[in-house]
Amino acid sequence: MIDGGEFGAIFTQDGVSIPFAADYQKTIDTRWRFLDIHLEFSYDITYSQIGSGWWAQKISDHDLGFIPGFTHRLTFDGALDSNGHYVPGNVDIVATKNGLYARGLMSAFGSPTPVHQRGFIRIFDCDILKTYRAPTEVAVYGADTGRSFGIKMLINPSVDLSDQDSKNFSINTEYKSLGIHQTGSFITNDNGAGAGKFSVFHGVGYPPTFLIAHWETPADWEKVNHTTSVVPDDYTYSLGPSGIFAGGGSALIKANSVTLDVTSTANTKYGVVILKEPAEFSV
Amino acid sequence: MSGDYGLEFFPPDNTRENEALYDSRKPRINIDLTATPKRMDIVNIRGGTALAVGTVGTRYREVLLPIAHNLGYTPECFVYFYVRKYNGLTTAPQADNYSGDILSYSSFIVTTANDAIFYEVDNKELRIVHEIVDFVTTGVVSDADKYELRVKYYISSNDSHTTGISYEEYV
Fold this sequence. Notes:
The complex is a heterodimer of chains A (283) and B (171). Chain A is mainly β. Helices cover 3% and strands 44% of the residues of chain A. Chain A is built from one helix and 20 strands. In chain A, strands 3, 10, 14, 16, 17 and 20 form a six-stranded antiparallel β-sheet that branches. Chain A has a three-stranded antiparallel β-sheet with strand order 4-9-6, with no helix packed on it. The two termini of chain A are 27 Å apart. The relative contact order of chain A is 0.20. With 171 residues, chain B is mainly β. Chain B has strands spanning 8-9, 22-23, 30-32, 40-46, 60-68, 75-86, 98-100, 102-104, 113-121, 125-134, 147-159, 165-166. The radius of gyration of chain B is 21 Å and the shape is elongated. Chain B starts with 7 loop residues before the first strand and ends in a 5-residue tail after the last strand. Classes of the chains: A mainly beta (283), B mainly beta (171). Chains A and B meet through strand 3, strand 6, strand 9, strand 12 and strand 13 of A and strand 2, strand 3, strand 4, strand 6 and strand 7 of B. Strand 13 of chain A pairs antiparallel with strand 3 (30-32) of chain B.
């Protein structure tokens, strides 16, 4: 039993005793959610089209039933043709509740050169648009134990407990997994000058680190591009710490011990993941 | 059991498969707390030096902070830049802002130069880099030395499956 009738397990960082541990000093708290990896894969797409226009290609199913957070790393971006017509990089990767899509625009001035792109995608078992907040425990300052406790459980029987590869362990409290404090969807308001802001109350007690993604509905996209959306459902772009967003746009981000404030273009939608890790305290 | 071992924790009165609160068998973004140098830390640094553009179109760069990881592959990383002070002031418009991956200095001032701090990582180390480039004129001088930054970085043990990651293209 942890506290108040709850059941689970807590492990803290080396030398920190549980009664004095803040959330950011824990390596496992089984009451939390973590950035669990649902699926990770490399993709390699080509797309050819006669004429111009928007296109989309489904590159994977994920079967989660909600719009998940994901990261995307580009490993190869098709080359310009000899006339320099095809603009590489003009391909967005977006996630719907059913799968991942690549979406691009074939220019009217383009050549028949196919789009060719390779990359690596990591999909998290995390509905970043769903309102969620984990329990919070703020540190009570006191003496550290100065003693080390932990747990290791091998998942690969061909190695021993001294192995240093985290993939070989089901549990290894010498590693920290990124715990999720809060998720939710937010829309910037309109201050009348084209800009807007939203504030997320997190109450974690310190300025936290965070991941953020731009999300859209087909109607949002159609309003800007004046054509029918080629992605059939609501979707998010990739998740990251940057104020420069995949899919376009940027934001100014501030955080304190109580709120995370995002200033960007008015009426723009974001999914936010606030992590248990602080941006301000040493670990 | 399919040969893997771990721990699952369920909510009270619910042990339905796939509804565990915690399942240790699920892979996660992990950071090694025992590694040296640290794979997760907060460091205070100056934003760079007053690099001057001498040749139009040339990138002038300085590596401010190299952090070895020696994982042998390019890890997934997250880096946050927080502006503590600009020109000694916590009240300047540049101060008290976060930016992940890359922080543009030139977005705060009217200049023809692109001036920024960002991170790059390969299979050996993470580097915090300051860079300025101007495509119009020479003589532009970076004001990176006026920035006092706090940098939070995570070097995970998860492979990014790339040969390297850099945000230089956004400078």
